[in-house]
Write a structure and sequence with these properties.
alpha/beta; 8-stranded mixed beta sheet; 3-stranded antiparallel beta sheet; 9 helices; globular
Length: 345
Amino acid sequence: MTTTPPDTDPDTAALESDLREGFFSDPPTVPPRWFYDEKGSLLFDQITRVAEYYPTRAEAEILRARAVDIVGASSTVVELGAGTCEKTRVLLDVLAAGRAAGTQGTPEAPGAEAPGETGQGEAGPGEARFVPVDISTEMLFESARALAQEYPGVRIDPVIGDLTALDGPLPGEPGGRLVLFLGGTVGNFSESQRAGFFSMLRGIMDPGDRLVLGFDLVKSPERLVAAYDDAAGVTTEFDLNMLDVIARTVECAGLDRRDFRHEAVWNAGESRVEMWLRAVRDVRIDFPTLGRVRTLAAGEGIRTEIARKFEPHALVDELAGHGFGGQAVWTDAAGDFGLALVVVD
């Protein structure tokens, strides 16, 4: 049960909760969802275009090659963490073409759903439907408006929500849904968080629904670190922007981006890249509404992201323990990135 006062901003309450849970731990951590205000979402879109960041290009290659297999007979596509929906368009092309001969309802103008809820408007049987889910309101509705223009035969139902805490049921016909979780975002979860995420998905999906999961593959540490520390400094700005989000959202004193530098490191024992904001001098950050103070000595850091890298079939094996049957695992030609297609048993 929430104890947040009615006049408390939901973002403030959520961030304060995340800070209580992680920022005063050792090491201090902040969930990566706080990267994605409007500026952060745009910065990440820039990251996907820098030379060092291969995952987006590799995943797009697989999507182009396997779009028909991925969409199959699905009538509803739900994308978790949709962002700009750029890569998804190749799948929407297939979805729209496959439903073009059927009866299509009039697409609704995008409208805000409540946080954590999915659009539940009436849809015709077999109607092509795309449900982008994202925490960034501005990016979500900008993308939805563009898609509504590009795909007049596809119903676009944007949903504002935390993709790790969705309530069911999902929109669309049970057994006819395709859920996308692209970009390797699954690597941002710890082992326990990943297990909880898979359990949540199984709870809101029905037998016959399918899940497509993007994941980054283990490779040389040099390439992995470079992907999270590009020469142009876009990832540095992306990381530091999280401090701006915190300072803007929660009452605090002593939090200044100039006191930190971005760092990416390879943790071989955990098979993951870690992003850190390292203090360049001694720092004291006061959070009056939390009644807490955090001090960092020069060289100490805040861990802002983990990015786990996987062997090709590892996630399919994990998903089997949550009620998903493996159907296919595809990689790009260079073997840099993978997509797994599984179905709810």
